[in-house]
Write a structure and sequence with these properties.
Keywords: Signal. There is one protein chain. The chain has 298 residues and is an alpha+beta fold. It has one domain. The chain has a twelve-stranded mixed beta sheet. Strand 2 and strand 3 form a beta hairpin. Helix 2 packs antiparallel against helix 6. It is globular, with a radius of gyration of 20 Å.
Length: 298
């Protein structure tokens, strides 16, 4: 999809990336670190799974965006289906996504057109991840993360339960936030705020609703910093993460000097491990539009 559409809900994307990075790198050589990292790897190792996610973005206490999604993924078959609902202010948009038969298919809820990306370029992109290690996390990445870990391990809490499950949590705020995380977070947020889209491209395939959602996000350009990060994970007896809640608080000012406190909250649920079958869509009799992968995939 075009860059403008890809930037929709950029606060959600930035928040999720920073939260996941902080959660993974914010652990040290301690029982909590070992337990969480082991659960992450075990969760990545499943061949198929159902994921439910709810993400909200608030600016100075006002909810700007609410994203609810259900994703069914089968890595072995390289298939996926997703139902996504985005709500922000007066704008809302539903999106259906499918990855099947070497194609990526997506449809907006307010029209009957199924947009299809296919061809060698798409197949190549879809298959790039098949060469990953079985656990989905390379040894090189793991070593880099381990090397970057410092005293943050002291903020991890591990609570083993009698039934074999585990509760893992972490809270960071103020000076506990690593300087490098603040520097990277500030850079990413500013880059997103300054990004420009392609006005023609945003008209398809989803129209201007997603542009409206993107425009409602605060554009932080000054004094951007991460104020707080909270993580709570529930690990089942099979050492897989079943639930995870994360909250990221970012503050800063926009180009007009107005202060903002942006809170990104994400609630994840994973279920039906190795028992999930993605939904398929039969395009026979449907309105189908084939998109140029070079235009929409950049």
């Amino acid at each position: 999809m075009n860059k403008r559409v890809a930037l929709t809900g950029v606060s959600v994307a930035v928040g999720s990336l920073l939260m996941i990075g902080s959660a993974y790198a914010g652990l040290g050589d301690a029982p909590g670190y070992d337990a969480y990292k082991s659960a992450v790897k075990q969760t990545f190792a499943v061949q198929n799974v159902t994921k439910q996610m709810n993400v909200t973005v608030k600016d100075n206490g006002t909810k700007l965006l609410d994203v609810q999604s259900t994703v069914k993924e089968d890595k072995a078959k390289n298939e996926m289906s997703a139902d996504i609902n985005l709500n922000g202010g007066t704008a809302s948009q539903g999106i259906n996504l499918y990855r099947q038969d070497g194609k990526q298919i997506f449809k907006a809820s307010d029209n009957d057109i199924y947009n299809v990306i296919e061809g060698k370029q798409w197949k190549g992109k879809a298959g790039e991840h098949r060469g990953q290690a079985p656990d989905g996390i390379s040894t090189e990445v793991e070593n880099v993360v381990d090397a970057l870990v410092g005293n943050l391990k002291d903020y991890v809490t591990l609570s083993p339960q009698a039934d074999g499950t585990k509760n893992i949590s972490m809270q960071l705020s103020g000076s506990q936030i690593p300087a490098v995380a603040n520097a990277i977070g500030s850079l990413v947020v500013k880059q997103a705020a300054n990004a420009e889209g392609h006005h023609k491209g945003v008209q398809e395939p989803f129209g201007d609703k997603l542009q409206g959602l993107q425009d409602s996000m605060p554009k932080l350009t000054q004094d951007v910093k991460i104020d707080k990060f909270d993580l709570a994970a529930q690990v089942n007896a099979d050492n897989r993460i079943e639930k995870q809640q994360m909250t990221l608080t970012i503050s800063g000012k926009d180009a007009q000097g107005i202060s903002h406190e942006v809170v990104v909250a994400a609630d994840f649920g994973l279920s039906n491990f190795n028992g999930t079958t993605p939904d398929h869509i039969d395009l026979n009799g449907k309105q189908v539009k084939t998109l140029d992968v070079k235009k929409h995939g950049e």
